[in-house]
């Protein structure tokens, strides 16, 4: 069902054979995640908030989580990280990914916990970084917590059209704190229009290697 793919920066991605789609850019999985979610997302959030509450739509390989943990070693913020993933990969697949060898053995335990610990249970990946994964679809999930940063890392609109809709983005707008933002690799015109129609202020930013643009959508006061 899944096969390991080598990307241009040396980091692994997965190809989902049943979906005929790759989890990350062929130009570099780590490069893409760092550019879209860490630099454009996490670094934006720390300018506006003392503590960071992250919601990830699509835990996938756990790359965004482990990169956020790594980045926080220098940021020194208190991070609460929730991730929704209705179709998790098997931990045996996750163990074959080379992120720990590239990012440092100090992250081995945390990466293993991301994929092997109990769903719905909050765990500590570091003293200032708590993590909880939820076996849930965003469309079905009911929650009253607010977030200041949302990593929208769903599969493409062609593969998961049910997640790229006005109703979903309206739900996300309701989950965001004022000045909070959503970041995503997708910069299609229709996606920008739907985000705007949900009441968010859309910024088109330079994309990672191989992509002209990415999107940051902000819930303004």
Short description:
By secondary structure, the chain is an alpha/beta fold.
Write up what this structure looks like.
This protein is of the alpha/beta class. The protein has one domain: Rossmann fold, CATH 3.40.50. The protein is built from seven helices and eleven strands. Strands 6-7-5-4-8-9-11-10 form an eight-stranded mixed sheet. Helix 1 packs across helix 2. The longest helix has 17 residues. The N and C termini lie far apart (44 Å). The relative contact order is 0.16. The model has no long low-confidence stretch (mean pLDDT 97).
Helix content: 25-40%
CATH topology: Rossmann fold
Beta-strand content: 25-35%
Structural class: alpha/beta
Record field, number of beta strands: 11
User: Tell me, what's the shape?
Assistant: globular
Radius of gyration: 16 Å
Q: What is the name of the CATH architecture?
A: 3-Layer(aba) Sandwich
Rounded mean pLDDT is: 97
The description of the largest β-sheet is: 8 strands, mixed
**Residue runs with pLDDT of under 50 for 5 or more positions:** none
- Number of helices, counting only DSSP H or I runs of 4 residues or more: 7
Key structural traits:
single chain; alpha/beta; eight-stranded mixed sheet; globular; three-stranded antiparallel sheet; 221 residues; Rossmann fold
Please write out the topology.
Blueprint: E1 2-6, E2 12-16, E3 21-22, H1 29-45, E4 51-57, H2 63-75, E5 78-84, H3 91-94, H4 99-103, H5 108-116, E6 123-126, E7 129-134, E8 147-152, H6 166-175, E9 176-184, H7 189-197, E10 201-206, E11 213-218
Parallel strand pairs: 4-5, 4-8, 5-7, 8-9
Antiparallel strand pairs: 1-2, 2-3, 6-7, 9-11, 10-11
Helix pairs in contact: 1-2
